[in-house]
Write a structure and sequence with these properties.
There is one protein chain. The chain has 5 helices and 14 strands. With 342 residues, the chain is α+β, with helices and mostly antiparallel strands. The chain has 2 domains: 73 residues, no CATH class; 209 residues. Strands 4-5-6-9-10-12-13-14 form an 8-stranded antiparallel β-barrel. It has a 3-stranded antiparallel sheet with strand order 2-1-3, with no helix packed on it. Strands 7-8 form a two-stranded antiparallel sheet. A hairpin with a 3-residue loop joins β1 and β2. 18% of the residues are buried.
Length: 342
Amino acid sequence: MRLKFISLLVLAFIFAAQSRAQEKQADTVIVPLGETSKIIFTIQDREDLEILRHYNFQELFNDIFDKLEATDGVRKDSSEVAAEEVSEEPVQTEERDTDEGNREDEVEYSGDNDEDDDDDKWVRSRRGKVGQTWQSYNIDLGTNNYLQDDQFPDGSEPYAVRPWGSWYIAANSVQRTKLGTNLFVEWGLGVSWYNFKFQEHNTLVQKDELGIHFVADTREVDYVKSKLSATFINASLVPVLDFGAHSRKPRVWDGHGDGFRFGIGPYVGYRIASKTKLGYEQDGDREREKNRDNFHLNNLRYGFRLQIGVRSTDIFVNYDMNELFATDKGPKLNAISFGMIF
């Protein structure tokens, strides 16, 4: 049932990606200036018209005129030059479609104007060419649980966990490569921490040759918490459809961003550490018992990662396709994590 559901998700994603990858032909608008000069706008995505509507072209042309005058030795005021050009030649526009072989090369302007406001900087940060890659550091913060026979274990199971306190934390270095106007792929490496906090604070995790056992500690103490933790090094590859066409993924603290983002792709991880911790109070003192072992945990984890974003907020869901414990060494549990990306 799980494989069928995930397969449908992947097929839906591939179909959507192929549909969006068929880009529309570019529209080119030519604005003649004088007898020998002209300005060419190449519009690849109609959504960019809204950006052009609010762009500060006066500052852009002032900067261009200043640089041209410094090169020619001409010292006219840029506003006078603009006024003369407008008065001498009426502005005419010509719109045409260009095929793939005759498209104008994309030119990205980046001036040195210190007076640019945050919105202008944000617009420029969205630009990028196919094949370009941007690097960022992301933090995943969420909660863990696991599924047994497609259900969360109830309180009757000794290994049932508390959602609050069973934290999932990951630090990732992510590369975002542009494949098309709205199609990207995010690939990266990171470290993640599973924390499974058991519902019963006196749960002991014991290991022998037969497998892993969850038993109750019967000592006369006040139990505070009991948990199992595991650390993994991970690699992921997630194709993403970004309908805001962001070359750089918006962040929560940016205060910018628009559009909807959706991605799903595989990941794989290797366990580098694991331990249990039992906390309790005895005679007014806080005690912690730690035990480091593999606890018959699988060294590899692999599964699918789902990412969904709206404006500057992104959430994730990780689902391990393989079981948490080695075959016949523990309960058949598949770990699942979900939370926010920062």
